[in-house]
Structure to design on (77 residues):
């Protein structure tokens, strides 16, 4: 993943932090993912939502590591 785009690198950071159980590093990575989505003018799905962050939060919840990032592109907790 790190060989791809910057977006893939952010996803790799979040995934690695989840595997390591590192809550702070995971939260930083998810915030970076959300910030990237917030800067986008267009979204692949046509819907302004930080879907990658949502997917990681589902994985993080099972591990007790949720970041609970706040954004207009995420549903309220």
């Amino acid at each position: 993943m790190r060989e791809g785009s910057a977006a893939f690198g952010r996803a790799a950071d979040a995934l690695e932090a989840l595997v390591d159980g590192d809550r702070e590093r995971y939260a930083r990575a998810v915030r970076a993912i959300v910030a990237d989505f917030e800067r986008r003018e267009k979204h692949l799905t046509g819907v302004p939502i930080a879907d990658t962050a949502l997917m990681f939060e589902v994985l993080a919840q099972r591990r007790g590591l949720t970041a609970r990032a706040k954004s207009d592109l995420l549903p309220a907790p």
